[in-house]
Amino acid sequence: MATKHFRQFRDPATETFSYLVGCGDAARAVLIDPVAGQVPLYLGVLKELGLALDWVLETHWHSDHVSGADALRDGTGARIAASRQSGIEAADKLLADGDTLVLGMQSLVVIATPGHTPGCLTYCWDDRLFTGDSLLIGGCGDLEAPRANGVALYDSVTRRLFCMSDETLVYPGHCRNGRRVSCIGEERDGNPFFHGISRDRFVAVLSRTRANDHLEQQF
User: How crowded is residue 90: how many other Cβ atoms within 10 Å of its Cβ?
Assistant: First the structure.
């Protein structure tokens, strides 16, 4: 059986989550949504685990923090991958829905989940989803970014993610109420942004609201 490594990192300044996925047998790893200020921590953990960094994966272009992708590429030789629609011009590989990234004996599958931004991606690794800002714990991303689309966001979550099994774990891009992980069953049945909410209602509220806290109060 392949040796797997997994770490979740939280950046206190922005409440951003970053993730390390590694294959111990191949001694290779990827980092998802790294934050610039946490790069020394990531490098220390990679060294501790004896892993070389192959890829830095972005779920989308981030407006709320500075990505650590460039610093990690400069320091490790890793390549940057992001959506073709992300607008991340420095990416070494442009990803599309259904692409697979192989990491030794592990693999991550790319799921396009646009809406919060046109280039939002979710990465599926075994029974875990790294959803970025598309699906948060009890919430979702806003529509503040250029070309954000509420219809696309609603469909991405309800048609691409909620069709997965209840037990599928959800690792979001940001911390909400101190929680670090959820599952599809919980989000499908209890997320107030989607449960019992029509697409028209969802779009109408997001379109007139600029803060998620205010949005929660209107549902």
Answer: 11
**Per the structure, how many domains does the chain have?**
1
Q: How far apart are CA 71 and CA 74, in angstroms?
A: 5
| DSSP of 65-86 | S-BSHHHHHHHH-PEEEEETTS
pLDDT at 214 over 50: no
Q: Which domain holds residue 110?
A: 4-218
194: left (phi over 0), alpha (psi -120 to 50) or beta: alpha
Give the CATH number for residue 211: 3.60.15.10
Residue 112 DSSP SS3: strand
Model's pTM, two decimal places? Answer: 0.94
| pLDDT tens-digit readout, 103-153 | 999 999 999 999 999 999 999 999 999 999 999 999 999 998 889 999 999
